[in-house]
Design goal:
single chain; 377 residues; alpha/beta; Aspartate Aminotransferase, domain 2; Aspartate Aminotransferase, domain 1; 2 domains; two-stranded antiparallel ribbon; 36% helix; globular
Length: 377
């Protein structure tokens, strides 16, 4: 029987593939009677830090909290400016605002769609405290360039790695050139639990200690508190993540294999396909193409029962709900960001995607393209 439908997410298939191990992990937690900040969280933190090559990992409630609490722990707040990008999920800038600081947006790189490092210097003022590069769609940003700029200007660097666990750059690893890396484990991520979850990995042990206090009402010891919050990674989520962490590298290889096949099948479509700089290892959290007739293509794919989504069709600085009154500002113009937002379309991409499903998706795009002559070059 041929393929007639392709969904966007594969996490149910992933659960089925790991069902015995995941069910056992959940059962063990339920039988333990310890559900918050217990041994599963501690072991996951150890394993995650080891996997990412850092000294510390601190589990928190979400990727958003990972960013926000890191800003708080590093003393970033009112009066400070944080340089980042607008073509990312809203939480990147939201966390800056929640900390009381001002997000400052620079444009994205025309090829990678990550932060345009050539635009960072013009955004720096006497109020600038940090740079937050986002590893968009699973591709590491140009961290050596970001780190050089940060060192020259005495700035902190916090990596938004919500979409790129396992990614690498050319001769550098994520976490190697920054003060902290913030991760998200919501279910659709490359490493996802069954709800919300997040973590901060760092080589700064003092920062890790501060984060452990902040996530637990300012407490490292029962009944002893300072000001903090409630942002703890649950034991159940940690147990599931421990099972999945063992498979992330293999899943990344499958994502790269799928991306390579998409690239080959769509090479003559005149669409803009994802770009990976030489020496980089993309982990393809999303496989994002760009097309001037994006909405028409998305509708056509839907008519063929293929789910394609947009990440992100409204850049943060274009959001009506963004708190501009809090002082957010744009540096120069965000031309690449705005053009990209109007054209992005994410195709189905997950390790469990089958070859017939991928080919069906690519063939549908080719069929649509043959009847359209307005694709971008």
């Amino acid at each position: 029987m041929g393929v007639t439908k392709v969904g966007f997410y594969g996490h149910v298939r992933q659960y089925h593939n790991l069902r015995a191990d995941i069910d056992q992990a959940i059962h063990d937690v339920l039988e333990s009677g310890t559900y918050v900040l217990g041994p599963q969280v501690a072991k996951f933190e150890e394993e995650l830090a080891r996997d990412m090559g850092t000294k510390e990992a601190v589990g928190v409630n979400s990727g958003t909290d990972a960013l926000w609490l890191t800003f708080v722990a590093l003393g970033i707040g009112p009066g400070d400016e944080v340089i980042t990008v607008s073509n990312t999920f809203f939480a990147t800038a939201e966390a800056i605002w929640l900390a009381g600081a001002t997000p400052v947006f620079v444009d994205s790189d025309p090829k990678t769609r990550n932060i345009d490092v050539a635009k960072i210097n013009m955004a720096i003022t006497s109020r600038t405290k940090a740079i937050v590069p986002v590893h968009l769609y699973g591709l590491a940003a140009d961290m050596p360039a970001v780190a050089r700029i940060a060192r020259a200007n005495n700035l902190l660097v916090i990596e938004d790695c919500a979409q790129a666990v396992g990614a690498r750059g050319d001769h550098f690893a994520i976490g190697e050139l920054s003060d902290a890396v913030c991760l998200s484990f919501i279910i659709q991520k490359n490493l996802g639990c069954f709800g919300d979850g997040g973590a901060v990995v760092t080589n700064n042990r003092d920062l890790a200690t501060s984060l452990r206090k902040l996530r637990n009402h300012g407490s490292l010891k029962r009944s002893y508190h300072s000001i903090g919050y409630n942002s703890r990674l649950d034991e159940l989520h940690a147990a599931v993540l421990r099972v999945k962490l063992k498979h992330v590298d293999a899943w990344s290889e499958l994502r790269r294999k799928h991306a390579s096949e998409y690239n080959a099948l769509l090479a003559n479509s005149r669409l803009i396909l994802p770009y990976t700089p030489p020496g980089y290892e993309h982990v393809y959290h999303l496989y994002v193409i760009e097309c001037d007739d994006r909405d028409d293509l998305q509708a056509y794919l839907a008519s063929r029962d293929i789910v394609a989504l947009t990440h992100y069709p409204i850049a943060i600085h274009q959001q009506e709900g963004f708190p501009w009154g809090r002082g957010a500002r744009v540096v120069d113009s965000l031309t690449v960001t705005e053009q990209s937002a109007a054209r992005v379309l994410s195709l189905p991409m997950y390790p469990e995607l089958t070859r017939p499903e991928l080919q069906y998706t690519a063939e549908a795009i080719q069929s649509w393209a043959e009847s359209h002559d307005t694709m971008v070059r």
